[in-house]
Amino acid sequence: MNYFYIFGTVISTVVSQLLLKWRVGLYHDVSTTFLGKLQFLGKLLMDPWVVLSLGLAFLAALFWMLALTKFQLSFAYPFTSLSFILVVVCSVWLFHEPFTVYKLASLGCISIGLLLLSRSV
Questions:
Q1: What is the pLDDT of residues 87-116, one digit of tens each?
Q2: In this structure, are residues 99 and 93 in contact, taking their beta carbons and an 8 Å threshold?
Q3: Concatenated DSSP letters for 8-52?
Q4: How far apart are CA 94 and CA 13, in angstroms?
Q5: Are 81 and 14 in contact (CB under 8 A)?
Q6: Which residues, other chains included, contact 59 with Cβ-Cβ below 8 Å and sequence gap of 6+?
Q7: What letter does residue 119 receive in the DSSP assignment?
Q8: How many helices (H) and strands (E) does the chain have?
Q9: Which of 20, 58, 84, 88 has its CA 20 to 30 A from that of 97?
């Protein structure tokens, strides 16, 4: 059950980021003025999916607080790097973002680092 808190943190963070990218992509901020930027942000804040995304980010923070009651920070924190891996993979799949050799190498390094850190306890 304790690992559920870390898993909840990661999944809530990933879904939040994917929702934000999806909705921001629909509005296409083209304004260069300060007022235009504020209007863009206002539209986003009125979007129910963006509100859900912000709620998921808050939920991730709650999960994280619970995780910190069960694990040492130096053990738990590296698991949040799973969100980097999942966001890259989902962005390639959902948003057709390019997947380069550099991204593959980076994800490999993150995975190896996480594996090594998880065994250090």
A1: 999 999 999 999 999 999 999 999 998 888
A2: no
A3: HHHHHHHHHHHHHHHHHHHH-----SHHHHHHHHHHHHH-HHHHH
A4: 16
A5: no
A6: 8, 12
A7: T
A8: 6, 0
A9: 58
